[in-house]
Amino acid sequence: xxxxxxxxxxxxxxxxxxxxxxxxxxxxxxxxxxxxxxxxxxxxxxxxxxxxxxxxxxxxxxxxxxxxxxxxxxxxxxxxxxxxxxxxxxxxxxxxxxxxxxxxxxxxxxxxxxxxxxxxxxxxxxxxxxxxxxxxxxxxxxxxxxxxxxxxxxxxxxxxxxxxxxxxxxxxxxxxxxxxxxxxxxxxxxxxxxxxxxxxxxxxxxxxxxxxxxxxxxxxxxxxxxxxxxxxxxxxx
Length: 237
Prior knowledge:
- This protein is of the alpha+beta class.
- It has helices spanning 2-63, 75-84, 119-127, 170-183, 204-209, and strands at residues 89-95, 101-104, 107-108, 131-137, 144-153, 159-168, 185-190, 214-223, 226-236.
- The two termini are 42 Å apart.
């Protein structure tokens, strides 16, 4: 009986040690994954921040061109800037204070296109300055873009026009696929309602991992002042 008790005690201790080691290893793996997730998130933030800053600088260049405020020639600075930076931008547009599209790179607009409900328009009107709008699918490139906007003002400070450009974000798909390939993580972008942005749903990460057995590591806004879109990084269990 004493020998059996010792064997049972030894087995219990061995199991306990094994469980403890498993917990330590699992904790270490989780911590490593969380660290990798944070590095990916910081990389996305930095890249997007640089893209937004460059986009706003180019938008300012358009607004400062006197032709951009004219009637017949409003499209020239829009088309010229787009031609120079077509790898980074989807479009440049001019919108009237009532939200009606007024000018595109192709020329002045002679039909009603109402953009007054767009977040980039409403935020620009409210703030009177450069803003980051929403994620959209570009009508020209059919690729994901982030809208950024700014305003041209009258002498009395009122808004004369809202100018907007779409920043191409195809590089985000590369980040998502890298996270899957190199770290075994799933990277998703969620809108304000918590719905994954549809144009990233066909990423290799989702095709590889599917939707089950995943643990959320981080959920953070894609930029400090951009609460409309969250980066969600998950670990495949």
